[in-house]
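[SOLVED] Predicted holo structure with zinc ion

Edit: marking solved, answer below. Original request kept for reference. I posted the sequence and ligand SMILES and asked for the 3D complex as structure tokens.
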Amino acid sequence: MPSYHALRKEPKVLLICCSQLSYEEWAKHDLRLEPMDVQLISIPGGPAALAHRHRVPEKYSELKKDIKLMLKKFPSIHTVIAVNHEDCGYYEEVLKFKGREEIDLGSIARKLAIMASGKNIETFFAKPIKPGSEKLEFQQIVF
Ligand SMILES: [Zn+2]
């Protein structure tokens, strides 16, 4: 039976992104992260719930709990990266509004700075390279 290096020991980064996104190619190319470097939280909407504590309180609490757990379990994590993407289905279906994916990253960064105190916080916005394209570019948003 084949076996795999599949148990993370010392991830460097906690990456929170929407389950719609495939982040691997970008993380390897732009961030120079190998699969074992990344501890992933991949859920619908990614970090969006952090910006909408009152609209989705149970999702907010769940995500906050998961972040705290990962940071406790893996002290090797030095950076927390939150990725939102254009036209995220979670915004339309769950939050019931559109077009806040990029601007919400500011609020998300502020929440993460508290939850992950002492870690580097980075935020990225992913959008198609041109309308309708399946290829995305990941732009770092600095606050
Ligand atoms: Zn999404």
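OP edit: Residues 7 and 36 are 8 Å apart (CA to CA). Thanks to everyone who chimed in.
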